[in-house]
Specification:
Number of domains of chain A: 2
Order of helices and strands of chain B: HHEEHHHHHHHHHHHH
Shape of chain B: globular
CATH class of the largest domain in chain A: Alpha Beta
Oligomer: heterodimer
Helix content of chain B: 55-70%
Number of strands of chain A: 12
Order of helices and strands of chain A: HHEHEHEHEEHEHEHEHEHEHEEH
Radius of gyration of chain B: 22 Å
Largest sheet of chain A: 6 strands, parallel
Shape of chain A: elongated
Low-confidence stretches of chain A: 16-76
Number of helices of chain B: 14
Amino acid sequence: MKKKLALLLVAGMTMASVIGCGSSAETTAPAADTAADTAADDAAADTAADDAAADTAADDAAADTAADDAAADTAASGELIKVGIINNDPNESGYRTANDADLKATFCEANGYDASFAYSLKNEEQINSAQQFIQDGVDYLLLSAADTSGWDSVLQDAQANGVRVILFDRTIDADPSLYEASIVSDMRAEGDKAVEWMKSQNLGEYNIIHIQGVMGSAAQIGRSDALTETAAAEGWNIVMEQTANWNAEEAQQIVQSVIDSGESFNVIYAENDNMAQGAVAALDSAGITHGVNGDVKIIGFDTNKFALEELLAGNWNYDGQCNPFQSSYIDDIIKTLESGGTISEKTIIMDEKGFDAETITQEDVDTYGI
Amino acid sequence: MQNQNKSGVSVFLGRLVRSQYFIPLTALLLLAVFNLIADPAFFKITVTTNSAGNRVLAGTPITILDYGSELAILAIGMTLVTAAAKGQDISVGAAVAIAGSFILRMLSGGNANAATLQMPIICAFLLGCIVAMLFGAFNGVLVAFFKIQPMIATLILYTAGRSIAAWFNNNELPIIKDASFSYIGGFIPGIPIPTPFFIMVICVVIITLVLKFTNLRLYAQAVGINENSARLNGLNPAAIKILSFVILGLCVAVVGLIKVSRVSSINYSVIAKDIEMDAILAVALGGNSLSGGKFNMATSIMGAYIIQFLTQTLYKYKVPSEALPAYKAVVVIVLVIMSAPTVREFFSSRMKKVKVKEVA
């Protein structure tokens, strides 16, 4: 009986996984095709969200550009530049998915790179991968560290072995002489930009619901500080300040609790798009209008595609970008170093935009949506 | 006469203190009284019109019923697993992500921005149930046949689940635009009470009927108390353990449906984050032993609403973000200590002493 049951279950699960794979493979193919098409038109190949699509897109885009600059590069140097890329898990967020797709599109053979990728959300695993890459003799190590500490010894190893290190997205607590450059987002600047926009709206009175990300994360600290300081300086009223841990449903509950308490508010400052989405769901169920012609201004961050579409539809008001496309900056740095140049600025802060619902265009949605 | 009456009261009190209902009821009462004194408006229920034009009830009690329902549904499954498998399933959050993602995948047909539903919601939901039950069965097989500790066995899905969920949708974030999908996590037109509450009621009615008309309760408890003697009495412990995990899988699918319906989308890394801990806590608050055996479903469900009541109270009083977990932890510690068997024993023996004195 036991055995029969076990067999049955195993058979059932195998069936399910086979069916699951089959159907997803079928539907992925056309998706990848369309993604590749748009990518070919679009200079930024990062609109493709899934790995498969990104790969195809990269190949396609690469085929297009191979004729001009990239091919010339490889032909000139004769050999590929070996890079080891250590990143966080692409499933972590839309930001990471776009970031990974962007890196894969830039660091491909057609652009003169031989790239290996390693993913982990754990610092120790990332350090192991780094050691592996150093042993493999990569020329460059690109690193988005899971944690800020613990990197000194492995970076010293890298330096001893002539591996040059470039940090992207996240900084680490190590001596700056151990890496060539660090390309980061300035979360504080993102917050300041959004707060500046709020100020420019001249709302008369500001009653703000402030929905925070996971407490202590860089994005939360930067974006919270910007609002908290300006609110104090301008005399804005913070009706509610609470963490929703980047989570839509928690944000929904927080906004719901403010609605239940009967307090009035006219701005929701959510530190990412998902939380803004949850907040808007709470407003909808209470019949409170929001967006361009509504009673409540909605502010989100990270320029997810769905968020920019909400802006375009006038349901939200502002969305701040957290730029995941570091690869072109990294590419420039490597080119400069390869040609014998030096990097003047160790810390490079990327350009980041803020989108207003009244001025955003479909083109912005397609270019910057992640 | 009066003396007899008094002892009658103390007998009642003694029974109440020993009853499993004592802790959850006291906790609910304390929270209610606290809120009533601090601000009676906490309990105000008003009628508003939502953006779809329906007249609906609103107010903190409604919000608690609304959001607590998901946890209550999970508590049903978690209680059964705890009773039969003598351990907890820590993968329910990840499994909710899997079920939710699968349902969205079915509804959107693989197109992240599908304008129309690609299949009726009920079909997508039933398929989602099958997927979630298979994952439940996977956990169950690991626990029942390979004799792995439930917490370790479910650690596998806990780790991998969210990646599997993302894989179902090629890591895209599908958005369902059809308004009827949002009824499940919101309001059905013409009905002023949140739908999740009705779903919870249906789940409770079903499990009550199952426990009343089948031997599930007896078998689950028998396996949880002593697996060997259960087997010697002709039960199949493995099958019952797997069954409990499959039932939890069903609960997970229901919660997944509600969760993805609330915002008509999903975020793989944070949807239902840490909900497994709240579900386990609900079981513990219900006075159920986390090492298996006898269980009380009603107190677990009350435990779930206590957690939501507490969360809503903390939001109401604007506890700073940094301090939120600390406040929650303090309340939880108090409740868990109070519901610990040794403490309950102590109180009921005190009660007995009072009674003895009165009789004398």
